[in-house]
Amino acid sequence: MNGKEKISVKALRVVERIARNEVEKVRCGWPPICSGIGHQPKRPKRKEN
Question: How high is the pLDDT of residue 36?
Fold first, then answer.
């Protein structure tokens, strides 16, 4: 292997690791993506003057 091939292999490994970490974060991450939809606090009632 020459220098360019070594750099390419290392770059591919880094990209693979980043992609795997992102998939794991999305799959098992906290907070879940939909948590903002589930939590809707009660809004205060408007006072009529």
Answer: 62
CA-CA distance, 1 to 47, in Å (whole number)? 76
- 3-state SS of 1-49 is CCHHHHHHHHHHHHHHHHHHHHHHHHHHCCCCCCHHHHCCCCCCCCCCC
Can you give the pTM of this predicted structure?
Answer: 0.50
Within 13 Å and on the Cβ side, how many CA atoms surround 34?
3
For 37, phi then psi, to 5°, come to: -75, -40
